[in-house]
Amino acid sequence: MNSESDALLRITGLVKRYPGVTALDGVDLAVTAGEIHVLIGENGAGKSTLVKCLAGVEQPDAGTMTLGDVEHRPAGAAAGLRAGIRVVHQELALLPGLTVAENLFLQRLPRRFGVVDRREMRRRAAALLARIGLDVSPDLPVGRLGIAQMQLIEIAKALSSECRLLIMDEPTATLTPRETATLFTVMRQLKAEGVAIIFISHHLDEIFEIGDRVTVLRNGTSVAARAVADLTIPELVRMMVGRDLAAEYPPVTARPVWPELLEVSDLAVTTRAPAISLTVRAGEVVGVAGLVGSGRTEAMRAIFGADRPAAGTVRVRGRAVRIRSPRDAVRHGISFLTEDRKAQGLVLDLSIAANLSLAGLDRVSGAGLLRRAVEIASATALSGTLRIKSSGPEQLVRSLSGGNQQKVVLGRWLAVDADLLIVDEPTRGIDVGARYEIHQLLLDLAGAGKGVLVVSSDLPELLGICDRILVFSAGRIAGEVARADFDAARILHLAYSGYVKNGSAA
Q: CA-CA distance, 41 to 225, in Å (whole number)?
């Protein structure tokens, strides 16, 4: 590996201020060509702002950036692209009505005789998809893909042209272990070609698997720059959060388990889908594992009434109920935290207070009028309970970090005191400190007699906090594993069982 003195990118004393907030306060960073450099820190530490300055989306107020031997101060995103910087953002920027191939080459469509050469576009798209291990048709509309598949399309899009510096912001957040392994293979190939890579991830095991060096940000400053090989996970966490965490996950202690809260019988998402049955008892945390596309999210959406199932019965506390819409589900004490918090879980241009009260407006209104003082008081109390970092309940949700946005969505369901909380990818893109707090909150809810269903692509997360795990495979529940029998290999075997001949994943 090249020494830091040969850095391709060098940032010194970078400062970025917003009204009332200093997002970057003298950040230093050096990245060499052919290096995978990890950028890590809690949500709100300044990572996204730093990336925006590099890409030309934001202009720093002080400090210097050099790329190669030239000062780097792009006047806009287009200038950042011309400098050879490619960013795979955590927030997807795809057009759902266009095909995969059209999204990959939207700004540089191949042409022949003045018209788009669709045959050549499909050929190039197929090669890119094969490179990242994504088996979808180039002609498929992007809107029909899942979140994880869209994330891989974003990665392929970044790789569709030459770049000097590739910035990857939480690229594995929705990927399965197999997809992550494919991505890491691609990253190693790019590293061997001399591409500099900035890799942002909250998955600590990934950092030690793929990273060469790491720079830690805390409260807008760079507090450390070290070789990954010289660090341990506890040391890295301590530098990130400024304190020790006893463990990555809160302790799962014995809790009273009450009678069945939810019973789902022979639920079929579509007329051709297999039927599934499951139960959740009050006082337990039930995990839902499976590959992306295994049907796990579709089943949860059907239970919540976001999608109308073709068949099946839902019972709440032993009584059959008809759930034809989310409104019905909420009325029966069922809540749902979507995997796509920005598109489906939040109104980004409303305040924290408004977002927290959306599911229970009757609690903060009277005679058809909003009681603003009650809404603000409720939001202030919930913000304190959830440790939402903000300037106050009137701050726009759009300006919050990812972890704090997720806490707002959780807070909305705490406000209505739902009996069953379904959470889909609850800690995707969230730092280790906020993850711990959210996991503790879910365990506390179970301890208070609530039922919790956790859908996650992060198997260690499920192993860390769940009492039992349901494993989906090809639309079916392939098996159930109790906590006493937790074994990652066994769960992965079940997850793959529906996709191989004779149901054997061996």
A: 12
- Please write down the HEC assignment for all residues of 46-104: CHHHHHHHHHCCCCCCEEEEEECCEECCCCCHHHHHHCCEEEECCCCCCCCCCEHHHHH
Tokens of 290: 């499976």
3-state secondary structure of 182: helix
C-alpha distances in angstroms, 390 versus 21, 47, 49, 407? 10, 17, 16, 12
CA atoms within 13 A on the CB side of 187: 27
**Domains 4-241 and 260-333+418-503 are alike in CATH topology:** yes
CA pair distance 115, 118, nearest whole angstrom: 9
Given the structure tokens 């639309």, which residue do they identify?
Answer: 475
Q: Please state, in angstroms and rounded to a whole number, the distance separating the CA atoms of residues 175 and 89.
A: 14
Per-residue confidence band for 343, with pLDDT thresholds at 50, 70 and 90: low
**Cα end-to-end distance, the chain, whole Å:** 38
Q: Which CATH superfamily is domain 4-241 in?
A: P-loop containing nucleotide triphosphate hydrolases (3.40.50.300)
pLDDT tens for 122-141 read: 999 999 898 877 889 999 99
Band of the pLDDT at 245, cuts 50, 70, 90?
low
Residue 20 zone, left/alpha/beta (φ > 0; ψ -120 to 50; rest): left
Percentage of the chain exceeding pLDDT 70: 95
pLDDT-derived band at 247, boundaries 50, 70, 90: low
Nearest to 120 by CA among 102, 134, 143, 133: 102
Please give the structure tokens belonging to residue 183. 């991505």
Between the alpha carbon of residue 494 and those of residues 286, 346, 477, the distances in Å are: 16, 34, 9
Question: What is 260-333+418-503's CATH number, 3.30.300.20, 3.40.50.300, 3.40.630.30, 3.40.50.2300?
Answer: 3.40.50.300
Alpha-carbon distances of 409 from 209, 450, 471, rounded to whole Å: 32, 17, 26
Output the six-digit token pair for 359: 């599911």
Rounded to the nearest integer, the mean pLDDT of the chain is 87
- Taking a C-beta distance cutoff of 8 angstroms, is the pair 351, 394 a contact? yes
- Residues near 195 by Cβ (< 8 Å), separated by ≥ 6? 33, 34, 163, 164, 165, 166
Residues 6+ apart with CB under 8 A from 434: 42, 43, 403, 404, 406, 407, 427
* Inter-residue contact 326 to 412 (CB < 8 Å): no
Q: Are 210 and 204 in contact (CB under 8 A)?
A: no
pLDDT per residue as tens digits for the range 440-452 = 999 999 999 999 9
What's this model's pTM, rounded to 2 decimal places?
0.62
Give dist(CA 404, CA 346) in Å, integer: 12
Q: How many angstroms separate the CA atoms of 60 and 66, rounded?
A: 13
